[in-house]
Specification:
By secondary structure, this protein is mainly alpha-helical. The protein has 6 helices and 3 strands; from the N terminus they run H-E-H-H-E-E-H-H-H. The protein is 41% helix and 8% strand. It has a 3-stranded antiparallel beta sheet with strand order 1-3-2. The chain is globular, with a radius of gyration of 18 Å.
Length: 145
Amino acid sequence: MKQYEAVIETLETLGGVATLGELNKEVFKIKDCEWKTKTPFASIRRIVQQTKGIYKIKPGLYGLEKYKKQLEDSGIIVDTDKNKNSAEVCNFNHTYYQGILLIIGKFHNMQTFIPNQDKNKKFYNGQKLQELSTLNELPTIHILN
C-alpha cells in the first residue's frame, strides 16, 4: 500500500475527518504500508496538503472530499470569503478552538474547565467539550495583595 493510500484509509477509519496529530498516531497501525522515510510526519503533512480528495478544514484539521457534505451538515465548515462571518462558521471556530485548548491543557497535565453554556457543544469529532475538560466547576482563586 502506498503512503497516501494509508493516509486516506486512516481518514476513512476516523470518520472522514482528523487532525494531523490523530493521523500521525493512527496511520502507522496500517501494516501493509512501509514508512522508510526519516521524516514520516512531514510526509503525512505533505500528503494531506497535496493529495486529491483530501481538503483542509482548519490548520491541522483535514477531511475527505467525499465526506464534505456530511461534515458540513454536522457543523464542520470550511471558512470561505462568502461565509467567513456567518454564525455557523463563528460557532464552529469558537467550539473547535475551545476543544484544541482543552486538549493542549490535558497534554500539559493541567486541569481544564469549560463554561456551562459550552459544555454540550460538540468538538469536530462529536465529543462534547465537557468530555474533554477535567473540572466540573471553576476553582476559587484567592488573590493576595
